[in-house]
């Protein structure tokens, strides 16, 4: 239980930046859905940003996880690992930007943004900087410097939000009351472009704060070490590409599945806005991942490691289900978060939330092939998931639009989760508490179904009823697996 508490503490610390960062950007969704001219403009944002995650995987090519693996393996010489990884990513990120600038015209034309090529250029530069910064951030995690990690993440978060508020609220107001103060740089018709401008500026500022970490150690490049790291990390690149394609292929190919491009961008805008809301579940998974990878690699030789991994999966599922029930219990709140033009897309919420839960469970199960250096299995699983995603997308999206995209994500991660579990039993059997996990899943689904049984004309009664159902799940968790005396702060008020 002590190991689980430590993991929970680290998850909470890293979650401050991951969750708060995504939450603050999530709060920008109400702004975007109200200040942009139509859902199609938000479709542009959704489409272009869907490339970011894919490019990040390609440009980091598994080196982040490779750094953790070899920094722990050669713990007495971790600085050499850090320096080698840092120099390698600096070279590849610079090369990427150079290639893009040379071929920017055909690339922007192919993507359909020849009218505004600077959208793509700003995004590519920001992505290259982000890719390079992955190793300094990994170094901070390796050294357990969570506070500095969070602080630098906040620099980007706060900077991006301030810039968005400046361009979308302050500048339009100044154009009305004192146009001479901003008309020399601000163009009211540029609209969606300022989202990319804000992101690029904030990314550059974040990188400036990371400079001390870049020069923290002496630069040393080891070709032999890099070969070992690449041999380990390359399958993770395939895994990462296939995995991120599973997450973003729906938005990447969505516009190309319709003849009417305006309709496609409008539907994609609705889908993208609702995905941002569902991303609360992804925020939790991301925060968990930041703490879990160092936890796994540092404890895998412990005699109690497998028991700890089993407990972690159970608690991950418990808290994921709490988030699911919490979000689905208050649909009125979800409608407040986005403009009315986007409400039709909220029907994807339960489907997408379960897809994120399956994805998180798959990540938990992935420890067996990472610890046994059989990372190619992870790549194969993701390729299977990608095949499922593509098939559903191509066949059903033209007819059912983004509802098919939501079900594609559900099917993809569900199958990947099952395959990883059954194959993992052969190579690294772990006694997961499937009985408890199954009970919690069954109860959560029953409570979710019961939430539809009462729908009165009095909103306060509906909310009270769904709150009661949510509390029933909380009571079950406390009674079975999370006694109040084990919870920090709360335990002070509970008798032993």
Give your account of this protein's structure:
By secondary structure, the protein is mostly helical. It has one domain. Helices cover 79% and strands 0% of the residues. The protein has helices at residues 2-35, 39-60, 63-73, 78-102, 104-111, 117-142, 146-177, 193-214, 223-253, 261-299, 305-328, 331-337, 349-365, 367-371, 375-400, 402-427, 434-450, 459-480. The longest helix has 39 residues, at 261-299.
List the helices and strands and how they pair.
Blueprint: H1 2-35, H2 39-60, H3 63-73, H4 78-102, H5 104-111, H6 117-142, H7 146-177, H8 193-214, H9 223-253, H10 261-299, H11 305-328, H12 331-337, H13 349-365, H14 367-371, H15 375-400, H16 402-427, H17 434-450, H18 459-480
Helix pairs in contact: 1-7, 1-10, 2-6, 2-9, 2-10, 3-4, 3-6, 3-9, 3-10, 4-6, 6-8, 7-8, 9-15, 10-11, 10-13, 11-13, 11-17, 11-18, 13-16, 15-16, 17-18
Provide a concise account of the structure shown.
The protein has helices at 2-35, 39-60, 63-73, 78-102, 104-111, 117-142, 146-177, 193-214, 223-253, 261-299, 305-328, 331-337, 349-365, 367-371, 375-400, 402-427, 434-450, 459-480.
Total DSSP E strands: 0
- Structural domain count: 1
Shape: globular
Classify the beta-strand content into a percent band: under 5%
The separation of the N and C termini measures 17 Å
- Give the H and E element order: HHHHHHHHHHHHHHHHHH
Keywords, separated by commas or semicolons:
496 residues; mainly alpha; 18 helices
């Amino acid at each position: 239980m002590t190991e689980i508490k430590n993991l929970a503490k680290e998850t909470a610390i890293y979650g401050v930046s991951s969750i708060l960062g995504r939450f603050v950007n999530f709060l920008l969704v109400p702004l975007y859905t109200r200040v942009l001219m139509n859902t199609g403009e938000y479709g542009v944002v959704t489409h272009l940003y869907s490339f970011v995650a894919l490019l990040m995987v390609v440009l980091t090519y598994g080196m982040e996880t490779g750094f953790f693996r070899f920094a722990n393996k050669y713990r007495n010489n971790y600085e050499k690992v850090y320096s080698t990884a840092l120099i390698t990513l600096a070279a590849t990120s610079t090369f990427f930007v150079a290639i893009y600038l040379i071929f920017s015209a055909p690339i922007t034309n192919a993507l359909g943004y020849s009218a505004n090529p600077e959208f793509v250029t700003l995004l590519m530069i920001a992505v290259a900087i982000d890719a390079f910064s992955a190793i300094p951030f990994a170094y901070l995690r390796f050294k357990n410097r969570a506070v500095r990690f969070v602080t630098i993440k906040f620099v980007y978060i706060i900077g991006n939000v301030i810039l968005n508020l400046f361009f979308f609220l302050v500048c339009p107001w100044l154009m009305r009351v004192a146009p001479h103060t901003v008309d020399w740089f601000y163009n009211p018709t540029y609209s969606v472009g300022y989202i990319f401008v804000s992101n690029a500026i904030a990314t550059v500022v974040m990188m400036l704060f990371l400079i001390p970490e870049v020069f923290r150690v002496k630069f040393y490049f080891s070709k032999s070490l890099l070969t070992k790291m690449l041999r380990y990390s390359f399958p993770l690149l395939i895994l990462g590409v296939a995995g991120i394609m599973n997450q973003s292929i729906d938005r990447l190919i969505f516009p190309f599945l319709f003849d009417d491009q305006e309709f496609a961008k409008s539907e994609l805008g609705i889908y993208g806005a609702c995905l941002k809301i569902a991303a609360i579940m992804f925020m939790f998974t991301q925060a968990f991942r930041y703490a879990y990878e160092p936890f796994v690699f540092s404890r895998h030789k412990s005699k109690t490691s497998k028991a700890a991994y089993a407990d972690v999966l159970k608690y991950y599922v418990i808290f994921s289900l709490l988030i699911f029930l919490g979000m689905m219990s208050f649909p009125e709140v979800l409608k407040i978060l986005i403009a009315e033009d986007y409400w039709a897309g909220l029907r994807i919420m339960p489907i997408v939330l379960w897809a994120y839960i399956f994805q998180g469970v798959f990540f938990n199960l992935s420890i067996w092939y990472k610890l046994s250096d059989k990372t190619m299995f992870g790549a194969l699983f993701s390729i299977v998931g990608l095949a499922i995603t593509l098939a559903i997308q191509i066949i059903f999206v033209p007819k059912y639009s983004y509802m098919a995209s939501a079900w594609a994500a559900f099917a993809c991660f569900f199958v990947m989760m099952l395959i990883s579990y059954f194959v993992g039993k052969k190579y690294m059997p772990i006694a997961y508490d499937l009985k408890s996990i199954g009970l919690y899943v069954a109860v959560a689904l029953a409570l979710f179904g019961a939430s539809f049984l009462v729908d009165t004309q009095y909103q306060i009664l509906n909310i009270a009823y769904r709150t009661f159902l949510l509390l029933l799940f909380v009571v079950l968790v406390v009674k079975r697996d999370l006694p109040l005396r084990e919870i920090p702060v709360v335990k002070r008020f509970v008798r032993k």
